[in-house]
Amino acid sequence: MDNETLYDAIFHRRSVRKYDSAPLTDQAIADLDAFIRGLKPLVPDIRTEVKLMLSGGIKINAPHAVCLYSEKKDGWRMNAGFMMEQVDLYLSASNIGACWLGMTKPDKGKAAPPAGMEWAATLCFGTPAQPMHREGAEQFNRKSLNEISDVTDLYHVLEAVRLAPSAINKQPWFFSGSAGRVIVSRKKSLMLDKLNQVDTGIALCCLMLALLHQGKEVSFSFEKQPVPEKHIFMAAAEITDKA
């Protein structure tokens, strides 16, 4: 599945919470597995492993789940969100319902973490038993663009980021800097700190897809930069025209 298809899915995806109990076809699972093998990481030197499982190994209300495990390095939760949002958008574009499960981990007795790794994120998925696509941006309950960024020259790109999912819909991210170098930070939150790190990775995935759609290239760096008060630096995005 190409980047344009994933980008288009941003504007219609919905968190699905009701599913048909029947599992997906073997072909659908094989196609998903092939897509997962090509996931793009945000931080390439972090080892990760993605596991597909049936509901018997994890407490979910869907026939399937996909879990990402990661070694613990700087940015590992953000990297997990970046990678798993690609899966989320793939499922939506494939007419397969999915939902982020914030703290739902596999049963350790049935699905032990790979050596040297910890659970980082879970999506449940299956055939939806409810409408799974929104008709347009007006059906999203989200913050306005000026609440998530002061880089007005990038509002046409950040509209896609504005629609990204986040834990209890808090949208903790903020984009400052300039149209050529965006500084990404998140609001401080004791209660949602771990989840908000994943959320920021989700937002960066949507940012990357939106920039690619606009004919831009983007690279991410992680050397700490100044950010607004009561925010935590997460990443800097260097944006250039495609060669």
From TrEMBL:
<keyword id="KW-0560">Oxidoreductase</keyword>
<dbReference type="InterPro" id="IPR029478">
    <property type="entry name" value="TM1586_NiRdase"/>
</dbReference>
<feature type="domain" description="Putative nitroreductase TM1586">
    <location>
        <begin position="6"/>
        <end position="210"/>
    </location>
</feature>
<keyword id="KW-0285">Flavoprotein</keyword>
<dbReference type="InterPro" id="IPR000415">
    <property type="entry name" value="Nitroreductase-like"/>
</dbReference>
<dbReference type="Pfam" id="PF14512">
    <property type="entry name" value="TM1586_NiRdase"/>
</dbReference>
<protein>
    <recommendedName>
        <fullName>Putative nitroreductase TM1586 domain-containing protein</fullName>
    </recommendedName>
</protein>
<dbReference type="GO" id="GO:0016491">
    <property type="term" value="F:oxidoreductase activity"/>
</dbReference>
<keyword id="KW-0288">FMN</keyword>
<comment type="similarity">
    <text>Belongs to the nitroreductase family.</text>
</comment>
